[in-house]
Automatic annotation (TrEMBL), chain A:
<feature type="transmembrane region" description="Helical">
    <location>
        <begin position="287"/>
        <end position="311"/>
    </location>
</feature>
<keyword id="KW-0201">Cytochrome c-type biogenesis</keyword>
<dbReference type="Pfam" id="PF01578">
    <property type="entry name" value="Cytochrom_C_asm"/>
</dbReference>
<dbReference type="InterPro" id="IPR002541">
    <property type="entry name" value="Cyt_c_assembly"/>
</dbReference>
<feature type="transmembrane region" description="Helical">
    <location>
        <begin position="222"/>
        <end position="241"/>
    </location>
</feature>
<dbReference type="InterPro" id="IPR045062">
    <property type="entry name" value="Cyt_c_biogenesis_CcsA/CcmC"/>
</dbReference>
<keyword id="KW-0812">Transmembrane</keyword>
<feature type="transmembrane region" description="Helical">
    <location>
        <begin position="256"/>
        <end position="275"/>
    </location>
</feature>
<keyword id="KW-0472">Membrane</keyword>
TrEMBL record, chain B:
<keyword id="KW-0201">Cytochrome c-type biogenesis</keyword>
<protein>
    <submittedName>
        <fullName>Cytochrome c biogenesis protein</fullName>
    </submittedName>
</protein>
<feature type="transmembrane region" description="Helical">
    <location>
        <begin position="35"/>
        <end position="52"/>
    </location>
</feature>
<keyword id="KW-0472">Membrane</keyword>
<dbReference type="GO" id="GO:0017004">
    <property type="term" value="P:cytochrome complex assembly"/>
</dbReference>
<keyword id="KW-0812">Transmembrane</keyword>
<dbReference type="InterPro" id="IPR007816">
    <property type="entry name" value="ResB-like_domain"/>
</dbReference>
<feature type="transmembrane region" description="Helical">
    <location>
        <begin position="176"/>
        <end position="197"/>
    </location>
</feature>
<keyword id="KW-1133">Transmembrane helix</keyword>
Length: 315, 520
């Protein structure tokens, strides 16, 4: 296939992914809206620890799904399953869009904002689907899909860049290492962010939204996995900067905000481990960190520029 | 925020006397609360550095603020906001954080080594109260349970009817190493700033560079760098090649594809010459000193013959890029030795000439497909070159001198753009300007940073150890044997790992009840 055909196919696949994610979102949402309501069991029966060094324990008092008054219709569960299937097909479309783009331009397909955002959406959906393989987190479905639809939609509408080569500074194997790690970590942070927002929206009592302890657990797990990856991404970035710009750290706006994001997530981990913050307080710290991440992705590229603005080298 | 929660850990207020005060200061500084606060401050302090142009990065934008809004610039300057990362207050945060980290690593290390040697604690009396608990009917003796747990690489302690086992110390190891490597990173960055240097230089094709302080256009040494310590290499720029996108998507035409500089390098004064292809992302390294390609542009070669027939100037003139997309560049050329009068030219270099909208000329492509030099103005008079005042090579003369110069050609009297080989005669027999050939220049950054490798090692160690610290959980398993039944209880002290531990606990129970298999 020629490069033009591949590029064209990639554009179509992105649009296809948006529609599929949208359909998946509706399926998940129906299940959530008509399925069982859940409640957080009151945190009781904490086990007294025989050893009390360091962190408070986290043997979570299990949460129970309390059946809502009317038995939920059977089709609610089916809607959720259909949603899941659609999400997988959407994921395949999203992934193929990236692969065809890569083949069309003959380089790693994340050299500009458009490609980067498309890849981050894939990473977020991947994080969600991969978690789903091990534990049931379908309750997060509608929200991850909303993020993916908005992300891809914004990419197509505002950031679209036709397939083409990148500037010489980006022509390096480091893009595979540094940017891939950043994309992966961002995808996980997005899942954690979605869980965090839901946590704040949801009250304590009976609700059709997932339970708070579920949400908190998912967010924490995602961040625990993402944090080392983000650390690695920042370091790989420094190594690349050392090769391309002659210094490994120059307080370029992107570097500054990556660092701030890193510190903020470290603060979240610290807040839980050493200060024993749980629930609302920890979630707010997490969301502050998430805001830093988003600002780094959107704000820095649009408002601040710097060497990372994918402009000419050395300008 | 973090403060209130951690107030309990905060040191008590001091009594009287200098020693008490010192101790109080040290304790406060090294408390967790302060460390986190400093970490936050460090991050917050770097924000203005990303919002306000920095002198080291964008000096022209700083100058612009001084021009447009001197009052604001004055205030920024007062708080060193144009040099955030070299400012006194940023250094203060850095040093305090550093001290605080040291202060919290030292006691944690001693605790760590004590922990390493400590035996697991006695099993609690009521194992059924533990989060994970099960009862085995088969007869399990303390010895067998201990052996099986040891096989699972638990540290085991036994007592009267009980076994206590613990695992997961690598978590603490990872955590401590992580904090130590952060400290290492801070040290490495500091070493780089003190013992390293950085400089910029512009080199034109067929010209050379020797690594001495005087050869730099801008040289930024750390305060322990002496002029003799520079690595004595040299090179000449044989040829500079730039390639740009030609076809395809119209918005991408002219996008740079590759820059490459062919150098002839001598690693030391007596050393043999070797070839090197310098590219973006592929710096030249000589004994830890790195040379990076960071920019490029055009340097047309001119010859000025003055009114007396003498060659008053001959050489390449680096032009400043005015429009990066098409590389329209501005050139300034002065010939103070020209007779009978000094000569000066303001010119534009157009790599691929094209008619501009509304008349005149512009460039349509950054590569030099059809290079032209457009003379915008030629002047004679005293350019003040010999006045001893510093002058920019990119400016013909300061405004007060410009006013006194006599224009020879300007505007409509300017000649058609010159192609290579063409020349143009000045009026009144004052001489002629010849555009001989096109050359290119490159800008380099040359950097020596002895902290690079240590910083890399520390950062790598930090990444690996944080994985250990986050992924490994500390867990304890207890067994109590009574009347032929064995009770097994387990718990993990690690945050968020309850679910994962349930599986492991089940596996441990399976091993414990493995029957006679491992009994020899
Ligand atoms: C300066 C004084 C500091 C002290 C006293 C301190 C103390 C601690 C303690 C007690 C833990 C928990 C260990 C465990 O769970 O076993 C921890 C974990 C951690 N610290 Fe620090 N720390 C300090 C500075 C920093 C700094 C500057 C960073 C960098 C951002 C940092 C990042 C982390 C991370 C990422 C964790 C892992 C959290 C987790 O286990 O979930 N710490 N620290």
């Amino acid at each position: 296939m020629s490069a033009e055909v591949l590029a064209e196919a990639s554009d179509q696949l992105v649009v296809g992914a948006v529609l599929l994610y949208l359909a998946a979102m509706i399926g998940f949402a129906l299940e959530l809206a008509y399925g069982r309501a859940r409640t957080d069991a009151p945190a009781k029966g904490r086990v007294k620890q025989p050893v009390t060094v360091g962190a408070p324990q986290d043997e979570a008092p299990g949460q129970v799904a309390v059946p809502a008054d009317p038995e939920p219709p059977a089709w609610a569960g089916t809607a959720g399953k259909v949603g899941m299937a659609l999400a997988w097909v959407g994921w395949a479309a999203n992934a193929s869009a990236i692969v065809t783009r890569g083949l069309a331009v003959e380089r790693w397909p994340w050299g500009n904002m458009y490609e980067f955002v498309v890849a981050i959406c894939l990473a977020a959906v991947t994080a969600f689907l991969a978690t789903q393989l091990r534990t049931n987190v379908r309750f997060l479905g509608p929200f991850v899909m909303v993020v993916a639809v908005l992300g891809l939609g914004a990419a197509v509408k505002f950031l679209y860049t036709a397939a083409g080569p990148v500037v010489p500074a980006l022509n390096s194997y480091w893009i595979a290492i540094h940017v891939s790690a950043a994309i992966l970590a961002s995808g996980l942070f997005i899942v954690a962010g979605a869980a965090g927002v839901l946590y704040l929206i949801r009250g304590d009592g009976l609700s059709r939204l997932p339970t708070r302890s579920d949400l908190e657990r998912v967010a924490h797990r995602a961040i625990v996995v993402a944090f080392p990856i983000w650390t690695f991404a920042v370091i790989a970035g420094a190594l690349w900067a050392d090769k391309a710009w002659g210094r490994y750290w120059g307080w370029d706006p992107k570097e500054v905000w990556s660092f701030i994001t890193w510190v903020a997530y470290a603060a979240y981990l610290h807040a839980r481990v050493t200060a024993g913050w749980r629930g609302r307080a920890a979630t707010i710290v997490q969301l502050v960190a998430f805001a830093c991440l988003m600002f780094n992705l959107v704000g820095v590229n649009i408002f601040l520029g710097g060497m990372h603005s994918y402009a000419d080298v050395g300008n | 925020m973090a403060v209130q929660e951690m107030e309990k850990q905060a040191p008590t207020p001091p009594g009287f006397g200098p020693v008490a005060w010192l101790r109080w200061t040290w304790r406060t500084l090294t408390s967790m609360k302060t460390a986190l606060l400093l970490l936050f401050l460090f991050a917050l302090g770097s924000i203005p550095g990303s919002l306000i142009p920095q002198r080291g990065v964008e000096p022209d934008k700083v100058a612009q603020i001084y021009l447009n809004d001197p009052v604001r610039a004055e205030w920024y300057q007062r708080f060193q906001l144009f040099d955030v990362f070299n400012s006194v207050w940023f250094a203060a945060i850095y040093l305090l954080l550093f001290t605080s980290l040291v202060g919290c690593i030292v006691p944690r290390t001693t605790t760590y080594f004590k922990e390493l040697r400590r035996r697991p604690p006695a099993a609690p009396r009521h194992l059924s109260r533990l989060p994970h608990h099960t009862v085995l009917d088969e007869g399990l003796t303390v010895e067998v349970a201990a052996r099986r747990l040891r096989k699972l690489r638990f540290r085991v302690e036994t007592g009267d009817g009980w076994v206590s086992a613990e695992k997961g110390f690598l978590r603490e190891t990872g955590n401590l190493l992580f904090h130590v490597s952060l400290l290492g990173l801070l040290v490495a960055v500091g070493i780089g700033a003190v013992f390293g240097y950085r400089g910029n230089v512009l080199v034109v094709e067929d010209e050379g560079f020797a690594n001495t302080v005087a050869a730099y256009d801008r040289f930024m040494p750390g305060n322990q760098v002496s002029a003799e310590s520079l690595e004595p290499f040299s090179f000449t720029l044989d040829e500079f090649k730039a390639s740009y996108q030609v076809g395809g998507d119209p918005t991408k035409i002219g996008q740079p594809l590759d820059f490459s500089a062919h150098l002839k390098v001598k690693d030391a004064p007596g050393a043999p010459q070797r070839d090197y292809e310098l590219k973006v992302n592929e710096p030249l390294e000589i004994n830890g000193t790195q040379t990076y390609l960071i920019g490029n542009g055009y340097a047309p070669f001119f010859r000025i013959t003055d009114g007396k027939g003498q060659v008053a100037f001959e050489g390449a003139v680096p032009c400043l890029i005015e429009f990066p997309a098409t590389r329209v560049s501005g050139c300034v050329l002065k010939a103070p030795d020209a007779q009978p009068g000094q000569l000066g030219f303001l010119m534009r270099f157009l790599p691929t000439v094209a008619p501009a909208q509304g008349g005149g000329f512009t460039s349509s492509f950054p590569g030099d497909l059809m290079p032209r030099v457009q003379v915008l103005g030629a002047f004679t008079g005293d350019f003040g070159v010999r006045s001893g005042r510093p002058q920019s090579v990119y400016e013909l003369a300061p405004p007060e001198i410009m006013k006194k110069l006599k224009p020879l050609v300007m505007g409509s009297t300017a000649p058609k753009p010159l192609a290579p080989g063409q020349s143009f005669d000045l009026p009144d027999g004052l001489g002629k300007l010849e555009f001989v050939a096109v050359k290119e220049w490159m800008t380099l950054q040359i950097a020596y940073d002895p902290g690079r490798v240590p910083a890399l090692l520390a950062a790598g160690l930090a990444t690996v150890s944080i994985v250990f610290s986050l992924v490994i959980r500390r867990r304890r398993v207890f067994v109590r044997v009574k009347d032929g039944t064995a009770e097994v209880g387990g718990l993990t002290r690690t945050e968020g790992s309850a679910a994962g531990f349930a599986e492991e606990f089940a596996d441990i129970v399976k091993v414990l009840s493995a029957g006679d298999k491992d009994v020899r």
